[in-house]
Design a protein that fits this description.
51 residues, mainly alpha, 1 helix, 96% helix
Length: 51
């Protein structure tokens, strides 16, 4: 019985870590999109001042 409880606990820990990994990836993608948008705005403003 103890081995089953231990295995079940490890399964829940693994599922939680997989969920955290997916959530972290989503947050990273959102951050990357914001960074790209900010860089586009920065480049656009600098091009206008040069011309």
């Amino acid at each position: 019985m103890r081995a089953q409880g231990f295995a079940l606990g490890l399964m829940f820990i693994n599922l939680a870590l997989i969920g955290l990994g997916i959530y972290s990836m989503v947050l990273f993608i959102k951050l990357a999109r914001r960074g790209i948008k900010a860089l586009d705005i920065y480049i656009d403003r600098n091009r206008k001042t040069e011309q």
